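Lab channel / #folding
Pinned by the channel admin:
"Please post every new chain as: sequence first, then the structure tokens as a reply. Keep commentary short and put observations after the output so the thread stays searchable."

First post following the new format, from NK:
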Amino acid sequence: MYKYLNESISVDEYFKIRENNEVLLEYIDGFVYMSPSPSTEHQRISNILETKLRVFLEGKDCDLFHAPYDIELKSEKIDGTKIVIPDISIIYDKAGFIPAP
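Reply from TO:
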């Protein structure tokens, strides 16, 4: 992951940058980071893992999403704003899950 900007910005400024940008960007505590494209091996492993997880989770009350999919991490245990793009996300507790438009 590479720092996209060398200055701290607000989350609103981050969303404005995202509107006009095709690059996958993450926002962590005021800083914007760009993730490089994954390697071929990374994609192979991610695909295998997702397939195995999907089979394992079949029939369970959860959702599995693969990148690119923004996840905002919020908890009383987490300081600051963190909007990340994990390779694979599994959502069990949907109480705090708000799908993006």
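NK: The radius of gyration is 15 Å.
TO: also worth noting, The chain has two helices and seven strands.
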